[in-house]
Structures are given as C-alpha cells and as structure tokens.
Amino acid sequence: MATDPYLHLVEVLSMFDNADKYIPFKVINTAYKSFDEGRSHINADIFIPQTILSKQDLSKCPVMVRIHGGFLVTGSSRYPVWFANWTLDYAISTGAIIVAPDYRLLPEVSGKDILEDMDDFWHWVHSSQFAETIKDASDGHVTPDLDRLLVAGESAGGYLTMQLALSYPSEIRAVIAAYPVLDVKSKFYTEAYPKPILGVPNFPNEIIEEHISAMRAAPSPTVITAANPPDRLKLAFSVFQNGRLLEFLGSEDNLFPMNRVENLAAAGNLKLPPTFIFHGKQDSAVPFEGSQRFYDLVREKAPGAIIKLHGEEGDHGFDFAATLETDWLKDGLETISKGWLGSTMVH
Prior knowledge:
Pfam family, one: Abhydrolase_3
Protein name: Alpha/beta hydrolase fold-3 domain-containing protein
Organism: Penicillium hordei
Helix content: 25-40%
GO molecular function: hydrolase activity
GO biological process, one term: antibiotic biosynthetic process
Strand content: 15-25%
C-alpha cells in the first residue's frame, strides 16, 4: 500500500528533528516584545558560539540575524529541521552571534502585524537590552558589533529578510535569502490549481475554514508566535495550494517586496546591501521564477547593487546537506563575508 505523501513528509521531518546541533552554542531565549497589556510575549533565541565563550577574552562579535520560514503560518526560531547546519557552521567560523526571532503567524494576524514585529525586533536588537542580555550570558566578555550585521532567512523568512533589507539598508552589511517568497502577487500565491508541495497533493479549503471557525469561536483572540511542524503544516500548505495567501497577508503596497523596489527606485531611495539569493530550480513550495524576477528588477532599478542569484537543481530546502565547502555556497558566502566582515576570510 502506498504511503500517504503527507505522512511520509512528516516522517522525514521527524528524522531530522534533532536539537543536538545547538550543542556548540550557549542558547538564550528572551522576549523582545510584549503585547496584550504585557500578558503575551514574542521571543528570540540568541546563540553564542562556545568557542567565543571559552576564550574568556573581551570579544566584539559580528551579529547574524536569522529569520525562520514556514509559509508565515508555521515554524519557530529554534525548529531544528529548518535551521540549516551550514548557517550554524558559518556563525562559528566567523565568530558571530546568531539572533533568531519568532513572530506572530498568519492567519491569526495580518502581514502588517508580522512586519510590525520585525520592526520591533530590529529596534530591540539595537537596544541596550539586547547588548545587556549578551553581556550577562557571557559574564561580561561578549558584546554585539552592530556595525557588522548580516540578515539571513529562508522561504517565508527570506521574505522577511528582504523586507528588513529594504527598510534598513544602511544598518545591514549583507543579506542571504534562501528560496525567498518575493513575487507575492504571482499566480502561485493568488490562484488555486494543483500544486503538490514537496510531493504532497493539494489539501482542501476545509482545513482553512475549520481553522478560521475555531479562531472565531475562541473566547478571546488567539495569537500564535511559534509552532513546530507538523503543527499547522497542513494549514500552511492549504493556504498556499488554494491561492489564499493575500487574503490573510493583506494588500497594502509595502507587503510586496517587488512593489517596494519599484516605489523606492521611483523615489530615488532604492538601496540594497550586498545580497546573495539562492533557490532550487525545481522548488515546489516557492517557485524559482520569483527570485529570478526580483533579481532582474533590482539589476534594472539599481544597476550598482551587489546582488547574486544562484539557481541550483533541487526542491525547497535543497541546501539541507550543503556545507561551507559546497562550491556554490562557498562562492556566495565569499561575497557575503566581504560585505559583512570586510574580508573574504572565514577563519
């Protein structure tokens, strides 16, 4: 009997659900924002490499912001399956602190709320509270160097990464977007047709309707700031497969990275830090063409921008097995290290 493709996917995910990959780091979980009159919080995880802590020298460390994916509907800052190993290795090799935020998820909130969380997170990273948290965790040895800030994210996190890059280009030294959601108005996100994601055929609209009904029936509004798949994964697939993303995201101009590039260029304000986008050419969850169109638009509107697009054979999450020695990644990270750290050196 053939296995159910969704159950097969869940089984594969569970095989890689291993938090041991965080052992080389001291991990601090802390709130960066409270809402609902202080009753609810949104958290971020800070990862400090043990190699830095063991030196016990005073270290001013570059910072890597890493934003998780999950269709804006599921995922969390510390869900191990989607936290690429190369990202952790890159932080260790560059002596960087990683800070990974959660954010409120669709459909309980709108895209506007999520972008507001990202702005609040950004201001928190630049606050004394962030520096103090790191200082306390390192017995006073480590301070974050906010002049050397890299922002990286995958999938829906790539969308949020690019939004931050367009909002705060002068505060960010470099950007890595892995198979990002960029061409949000394209028919993949706005129309329903058969679109198996990672081999899983379309889920029905009922999954969304039942979720919305349960939300409406709840005695008080629920807000979800983190979910580890398979939690909410069917809902996420269903939103994308049924072309309903914008219904929950919203329609304001600033929700669409392509529009923002056009508008900023028209106003003479388009700036982008050195950017490396990579994407699987057979991506079934976020079509490769979106990254291509975004890249072409930036090249046209900001010819001087340093932007690199690498298309690799593979589906969503194809970089799972990549290492710092993988040719295409090594090549892209050289450009990034130069922009971020002022050198191509990864020591």
